[in-house]
Amino acid sequence: MSVRFPPLSSRTFSRWSTLAGMVVLLSGCESGLVASGSESIVGTSSTRAPAVTGTPPLTTNLETGSNISEQGTGAAQFRAFCSAFQTHPMLKITLLFGQTRPHGKPISAAEWREFVNTTLTPTFSTGLSILSAQGQWKDTTTNRLTQEPSRLVMVLTEPTQDLTSRLETVRNRYKTRFQQDSVGITISAACAGF
């Protein structure tokens, strides 16, 4: 089943592609673990971008709340692979938050902590990880290389009926509160055990 995602402007895509690439590198290039035919998703909620088509990893419809392990042969192989390590299939979601407002004023540590406490923690109460990062992208309009402090928030979760709306709420709150053009997101299949 194909899923349509919001369009990506070249500026937004360039801005987050470096960070998204780093996430894949840091995660051990999980694509070798994913059943054939699945692919990672990179997107933003920018409203100014051309349409792209992709297939979510091992899940065909997050809105149904169906479990990754219920999705068919590829998922069964992935579930078996995860079982070999005494783990189970989950979604690994990484959110990419720029830490500078458009006019150059940084988002303070206190503002970030307050966003974590009032939005991220209640939304992902079972746990999350936050990493500091330095992102960079080339502005395709000005051809200038721009760098920005960033935060990567990683969440491991089962696909639930409300996951899409929870993710979009987090992204929209951050964009509105800190005048951001986008909040990057990557979603991939992962084997997880705690």
Automatic annotation (TrEMBL):
- A Pfam family of this chain: DUF3574
Q: Residue ranges under compositional bias (Polar residues)?
A: 56-69
Question: Where does the source fall among the domains of life?
Answer: Bacteria
Region (Disordered) spans which residues?
Answer: 44-69
Q: What is this protein called?
A: DUF3574 domain-containing protein
Q: Which organism is it from?
A: Acetobacter orleanensis
